[in-house]
């Protein structure tokens, strides 16, 4: 039995319309009841995961949240952060200056557990909606933020991603969580780093972990877990490093992976 099971949310537990089937909820809960500690691991902010944590009974089964693409570890039953990482202020300033060269891109920051932006587009509003929140317009650059998102239509990000990685790749970790989001976290901080941190915190051998995801920000987590599962709807580079490829989220494929490895 695997001691820890880490699940990405969007594109893994959710269907394309953002809903989660009751059968998926039941399967995750059953794995938790069988003794596997459940961890939701997402690029979402912590506050955007709390309701889901209760849905999956993490408050009753000593579960955790890994949020902001690995920047934070949150213990659900005690409602306390165990670990928090934040972007270096100078890097945030450089990103803020660089994004001004791309008027089609809107930056997203997280200030005092709120979604804030200095330029709004539909993808900023999408981030707020997904997290059951609103996005606040501000006229300053928040320097104390766990991560930064550049939000734009996928083709716009496709056009600049290589340039951005060349400019900032040695200064921070860059991941494409969704086609419309290019995400920046502190250098070396990602879901792969987070799975190692949580194993140290809980005294678990990383070989005893299971991880399932679909996006570019899930790749390192899937690589480092004892068993890494990619969804069939996931990116090709993510599927290439997985031990097992589950059916797509449209078919609730995560249930197949849970039944194979956790039940």
Automatic annotation (TrEMBL):
Database matches in SUPFAM superfamilies: HAD-like (SSF56784)
MF annotations from Gene Ontology: magnesium ion binding; phosphatase activity
Endpoints of the signal sequence: none
Cited InterPro entries: Cof, HAD-like_sf, HAD-SF_hydro_IIB, HAD_sf
GO cellular component, one term: cytosol
Annotated protein name in UniProt: HAD family phosphatase
Source species of the chain: Culicoidibacter larvae
